[in-house]
Amino acid sequence: MAAVPLVVAGIALAVFFAGRAEKKKKGRVFRTVFLCIFITVLLLAEVFTYFGGFGTGESADPEEFAKYAETVQSLTIPEGVRVVALGEASHGNSEFQQLKLDVFQLLVENEGVKAFALEGDFGGCEMVNRYIHGGTGTAEEAAANIGFAIYRTDEMAALISYMREYNEKAPKGEDLRFYGFDMQRGLYTYQLLLEECEKLRVSAAKIEPLVTGEDWNPEYDYPQRQAHFEQIKALLAAKEESDLGVHLAEMLIQNCQLNSGEGTSAEYISLRDSFMKENTLWILEQEEKLGRECIFVSGHNGHVEKVTGYENMGGLLYEELEDDYYVIGTDFYKTTCNLPRGRNGNRTNQTFYSYDPLAKAAKRAGFNICWLDFSKIPEDSSLKQYTADYIYNGSLGEGYNLIIRTIPMSYRVFENPEMAYDSMLYVSEGTPTRIKQAK
């Protein structure tokens, strides 16, 4: 049914112009041209319908859904899990940001998790880690150190405040730690590397010229920077207790490789995810050295889910950890999302609908936010046809344009929920985050 308006419009357009062409005695040429237009419109209509159409799609049975849906506070994870990942269908929704704190707090209180790892640069997140261990400033300033606008929010400040308050009362050795596993920016990581070099008495002369003032020195391109960081890494690796220093150097090498300008956009995405997987395993290793068995990871659905169209972080982690990797996905029925528009830094709030029959059932069943554990759904339940088959989920990144506004399939992903996630959190109506101005 979603294709009907396009079909009607195509027919009307073709008939109108074909008639005019006949009057101008150029009928044959114009008829051919607009016949092609008509066929193109039909094909596009079919494509749009195949990829989710323009409506909100069908709904799973809301009564059946309500039998198995639970509150967020009911969320549990299986024994033996080493990495719990929480995805978000968009970065720009208040509810998905708030769920970071809600889920992490449950894991801290019920599962003994002490580490929070974010889709943010290691250096910026280490600044947050210092703040939650008694550092100066405010939670808002700490959040701004992460470097991305999506984290300059009240929700992230609340998460950081919770971790600081917890640490103020925690016994020695029971403190919470804040990590980043991304590498897209590197200035804070560079500063930390200089600190490690000084502490371990390793000469940083090779890398000191790479930064002038508060930015990278333009006289050095990425391959040149990488060569210097590799030299420092080798010097640090020869030292005892240099694990952090080596990791800092490695993160900066990753930054250089990622931003060297070589490769396609898809290769950039795959390379970044492969680095994030390695960095997550490093964080897990550090926590296990402290006697902690599980870490909590937060990022976009597309990074943490277990299967996608490219080798993403979650898929790579699942290959290595198997059932020790547990993923909680998210989706919305309706969302008003905060997104950047253009290159000038302006942001806009825009409304979208997913095509997810489970999210629609959550809405119709009266849930604002709920948790669905796929392992608890019996084979004979009508929900199984949706959780175990391919459906469309909402997926919004950091960008907004005319294509996203007019073509729903551009922000919907076709995937099998049970293959991608172990459970999901559904938000019926998402509200936008409020991004604070950078100071």
From TrEMBL:
A biological process from GO: response to antibiotic
Keywords: Membrane, Transmembrane, Transmembrane helix
Membrane spanning stretches: 6-21, 33-53
Top-level taxon of the source organism: Bacteria
InterPro entries named in the record: Emycin_Estase, Hydrolase/PRTase-associated
Protein name: Erythromycin esterase
Organism, as annotated: Butyricicoccus porcorum
Organismal lineage: Bacteria, Bacillati, Bacillota, Clostridia, Eubacteriales
